[in-house]
Amino acid sequence: MGRAMAASLVAHGFEVRTWNRSGGKLDGAESSPTIEGAVRGADVAITMLSEDSAVRAVTLGEGKLRASLKPGATHVGMSTISVALASELAALHEESGQHYVNAPVFGRPDMAAAGKLFIIPGGPPESVTALDSLFKAMGQGTFPMPSAPHSALAKLCGNFMLASTLEALAETLTLGEKGGIPPATLLQMLTGTLFNIPVVHGYGGMMVRQEFTPAGFALPLGLKDVKLVLAAADGLEVPMPFAEQLRSRFIEAVAQGHQDLDWSGIALVARESAGLR
C-alpha cells in the first residue's frame, strides 16, 4: 500500500523521499537508509504501516520520526490504528511543536496504485486543509473527521462493516451451496437484486472463485482490526456482540493456518464448518 501511495505522489509531481522497513526503492523517489534521513527537513511525513506496534517503532524514540521531524511539520498517519494511539500521537506531536493528522484509507493495493483510495483525515482543520493536494493525488474522496481519534474510530467502524459483510457473504454462499445452489448463481442473484454494491461484487467473486492469494489484506490484519473495534467499544461501553463473533471467526481462521490468505478467506472456514470441501 505504501509503495503504491508513494508512486501516486511521484506521478503527481511531488518530491518524495522514502524509507522502507523491508528495503526496496521506488522509481522517481529518493531512498533513505534511515528514518531520520527520510524526514529531515520535510514539511510532511507520511506513514503507512500494519499495526500499532509498527507505528510506535517507527514514530517514537531517538532517531525516529517524531524526534527527527522539524517543528511545524505534519505527520500524516495513514495506518489503521487504535483510537488510543491516535490520541497519543496527536498529543506527543503537539508537545514537539508538530502537527498530527490521522488519515486512514479505504481501498486495496490496486486502488492505491490507481490513486482511487478513500481517505478519512482527522486533525487540526488548518493542517487537514493544507494536505488537500496530497490527498487528491492518492485518493478519489476525503471524509474529514473532527480529530485524530475520531478519524481512527471512523475507520474502525468502516472495517467492522466490511468484516461483517465478509462473514454474511461466507455464510450465505455456504448455505446456498450446501442446499444445491452454485455459489456463482447465488451471487449473481444477490448482486442483480438488493446487493448491487462493490464490496459484494468484489469479495463475493473472490469467495466464489476461492481466490484468496495473493492477499490484498491478510487475515491476521482482519483479526487485528476486529480486536481494535472491540477495544474501542470497551472504552466507550458499547456492547458489540457480533464483533465478538467475528473475533472468534478470525481466530479460528488463523489457527487453522490460513494466515497467508486474504481476509475474505474466512469463507473457507464457513465451508469447512458446514462439511464442504
Q: Any overview of this molecule?
A:
It is a single chain. By secondary structure, the protein is mainly alpha-helical. The chain folds into two domains: 2-146, NAD(P)-binding Rossmann-like Domain (Rossmann fold, 3-Layer(aba) Sandwich), CATH 3.40.50; 152-273, Orthogonal Bundle (N-(1-d-carboxylethyl)-l-norvaline Dehydrogenase, domain 2), CATH 1.10.1040.10. It is 55% helix and 9% strand. It has helices spanning 2-11, 35-39, 52-59, 65-68, 83-95, 109-113, 125-130, 132-138, 148-178, 183-192, 198-209, 219-236, 241-255, 266-273; strands at residues 17-18, 30-31, 44-47, 74-77, 99-102, 105-106, 117-119, 139-142. It has a three-stranded parallel β-sheet with strand order 3-4-5. β4, α5 and β5 (99-102) form a beta-alpha-beta unit. The radius of gyration is 20 Å and the shape is elongated. The model has no long low-confidence stretch (mean pLDDT 96).
Quick recap:
This protein is mostly helical and 277 residues long.
Shape annotation = elongated
Terminal CA distance reads: 33 Å
CATH class of the largest domain: Alpha Beta
Order of helices and strands: HEEHEHHEHEEHEHHEHHHHHH
**Residues in β-strands, percent:** 5-15%
Q: Which spans have pLDDT < 50 for at least 5 consecutive residues?
A: none
Total beta-strand segments: 8
- Secondary structure tally, helices: 14
Mean pLDDT: 96
- Nearest-angstrom radius of gyration? 20 Å
- Overall tally of domains: 2
Proportion in helices: 40-55%
